[in-house]
Design brief:
Number of helices: 17
CATH superfamily of the largest domain: Periplasmic binding protein-like II
Oligomer: single chain
Largest sheet: 4 strands, mixed
Strand order of the largest sheet: 2-1-3-11
Number of strands: 12
Order of helices and strands: HEHEHEHHEEEEHHEHHHEHEEHHEHHHH
Helix content: 40-55%
Strand content: 5-15%
CATH topology of the largest domain: D-Maltodextrin-Binding Protein, domain 2
Shape: globular
CATH architecture of the largest domain: 3-Layer(aba) Sandwich
Length: 409
């Protein structure tokens, strides 16, 4: 998951809302000057490593040029962004344009620090519903994401062909294929089931596709999804080490030929392209029952506009966000970074032009925002999810009892 779960930095911060609201107070605004008077914008994001840092810079520079402005960009490590935002809020130095991981948008919007984009001529027309849900709060739009990502099932084409196995479409087929593909020195499948938000993220396609819901983690549908993970590990088709693996570890296993399939995202494609001996393809996550629809989580970052007493600068920042989300920029960023446009109308075109992203483009149409149902309570549910996975995979609880135990029941 490219997105970092950093909402924990907000926990217990009783003065956060007051600080941000004070910083974002729009009272006593200076008269709006002509938008042409704005010559520069400040930007904060967490793309602090190449190649993403440089690729994003190109997109930012393009919009700056179109708007006739210069930009002053600051990048920080992902796990420090929220703390940086809080520090800037307290010193009233929030940037003109702020990038946030999409699950964090609602939490920051709730503090009053962000300007509603609807009030500045922006809208979410044509954007996939999952991203609209993630970037809206109390009926208003606070962020727009040019690109998104999700997870699906990679498979080694040569290994499946050699074993006479077709890419699995159902859970039963997934378990059978994983078992048949397992042999000394190679597991049938690799995935991340570690005790972090990343472990929860990788579990969501199974849980959501099966009709499970984070509003009721003790339902039979959720237990069935956890049983799938248990069955794969218990049968030896997946390593017991999945409880410690990251998504990067799963990719390493797959790239080294030590796993025939893996659950992962398109951000792994650049690394896989460096291992040309591994011939791979991707399919959407398998279904438990044929009449189900695959539902996976949405990743990706949204660009927001902090409240600013200078209305002209705030509007220029909104214009900048609008530019970042133009059709042209969505396609350019998606192609450059192996991500996906967030506008439904662009997905089919993109999948045609970038065939390796076809399954992800299909998967993202029905993908969901992690905060879509619980809002800023999502991190609490995510913690219960990864704790339950750990309990079940280590044999400390059955799939049926793990969620009850993890939630303190």
């Amino acid at each position: 998951m490219i997105s970092k779960r950093i909402a924990a930095a907000l926990a217990g911060a009783t003065t956060v809302s007051l600080l941000l609201v004070a910083c974002g107070d729009n009272g006593g605004q200076s008269p709006a000057s002509s938008g042409d008077s704005v010559k520069s914008l400040t930007i904060l994001d967490y793309y602090n490593n190449d190649p993403d840092k440089s690729l994003v810079q190109k997109g930012l520079d393009s919009c700056a040029s179109k708007l006739g402005i210069t930009i002053q960009r600051e990048t920080v490590p992902g796990d420090t962004l929220i703390q940086k935002v809080l520090q800037q809020a307290s010193s009233k130095t929030l940037p003109d344009v702020l990038m946030l991981d999409n699950p964090d948008v609602q939490q920051i919007a709730a503090t009053g620090a962000l300007a509603p984009l609807n009030d500045m001529g922006l809208n979410s027309d044509g954007v996939i519903q999952g991203m609209v849900d993630a970037t809206s709060y109390e009926g208003k739009l606070y962020g727009l994401a040019p690109v998104t990502n999700t997870i699906a099932l990679f498979y080694n084409k040569d290994m499946l062909a050699e074993a006479g196995v077709q890419p699995p479409k159902t859970w039963d087929e997934l378990k059978a294929a994983s078992k048949k593909l397992t042999k000394p020195g190679r597991y049938g499948i690799a995935f991340n089931a570690n005790a972090t938000y990343e472990g929860s993220w990788q579990f969501l396609p199974a849980m959501w596709t099966n009709g499970g819901d984070e509003t009721d983690l003790t339902s039979p549908q959720v237990a069935e999804a956890l049983q799938l993970w248990v069955d794969l590990v218990k049968s030896g088709s997946a390593s017991k080490s999945v409880i410690n693996w990251t998504q990067g570890d799963a990719k390493d296993q797959f790239a080294a030929g030590k796993a025939a399939m893996m659950v992962n995202g398109p951000w792994q494609i650049p690394a896989l392209e460096k291992t040309p001996n591994v011939k791979w393809d991707v399919v959407t996550f398998p279904l438990n029952k044929p009449d189900q629809t695959p539902v996976a989580p949405l990743g990706g970052e949204a660009w927001t506009v902090p409240l600013n007493k200078d209305q002209a600068k705030q509007q220029k920042a909104a214009d900048f966000v609008k530019c970042l989300n133009s059709d042209e920029n969505e396609l350019a960023w998606a192609k450059a970074r192996f991500t996906l446009p967030t506008k439904t109308a662009l997905l089919d075109q993109y999948a045609t032009e970038v065939p390796s992203m076809k399954a992800f483009a299909e998967q993202v149409k029905t993908a969901r925002a992690r905060t879509g149902k619980l809002g800023d309570k999502w991190p609490d549910a995510a913690k219960v999810i990864y704790q339950a996975i750990q309990l079940a995979l280590t044999g400390k609880a059955s799939a049926q009892d793990a969620f009850k135990q993890a939630s303190g029941g």
